[in-house]
Specification:
Rossmann fold, alpha/beta, 7 helices
């Protein structure tokens, strides 16, 4: 099992469903149901979003929900340095919330390994290119919700850390919550 330093481990979901199931909408709903972010995590998430240049709502911000496309670059996923200033990527921007991966079969091995490393460390370590010697570590503790057409299509490490749930099971949970 993945070790999450100084925080409770969020539940991860691996959803097996047909194309056109509406998984993005369901993942957004599930992220709200499972939201257990502490004030410290929310504060960190707010600072990360400010560094990334995202506008934040007034008052208590909702838990982040990030759904990057499978074609996102490694720099877009992990983050990078812009000069001497770190620019958070999708993994850090999901800190304290949910990272949703649609069409898991289409994600590159490199991207999936970056996600796995972030889950294992609970952070993203960035080093500047070009020999300037800048280094920083940005928090990246998030809940993973991934959609695939079959459980066998998911990498072994992902099947180990995720609760596997079928389209029928998730629809049953939604009906139970709304009734």
């Amino acid at each position: 099992m993945t070790n999450y330093p100084s925080t409770k481990q969020p539940p991860h979901l691996l959803i097996c469903a047909r194309c056109g199931f509406g998984a993005l909408r369901l993942a957004r709903l599930a992220s709200r149901w499972l939201d257990e972010g502490s004030s410290e995590i929310r504060s960190q998430a707010s600072k990360i979003h400010e560094a990334a240049g995202f506008a934040l709502p007034f008052g208590e911000p909702p838990a982040p929900f990030r759904a990057p496309h499978c074609s996102v670059t490694e720099a877009g996923l992990r983050g990078r340095f812009l000069g001497w200033k770190p620019a958070p990527g999708e993994l850090s921007c999901a800190h304290g919330g949910t990272l949703f991966l649609d069409d898991l079969e289409r994600w590159s091995h490199t991207s999936l390994m970056a996600i796995r490393l972030a889950l294992e460390l609970g952070c993203i370590n960035l080093t500047s290119e070009g020999g300037e010697g800048f280094f920083t570590s940005i928090p990246a503790r998030f809940r993973l919700i991934a959609l695939c057409e079959s459980f066998e299509a998911a990498p072994d490490w992902m099947r180990e850390i995720c609760e596997e749930i079928s389209e029928e099971e998730i629809l049953g949970r939604i009906e139970g919550l709304t009734s």
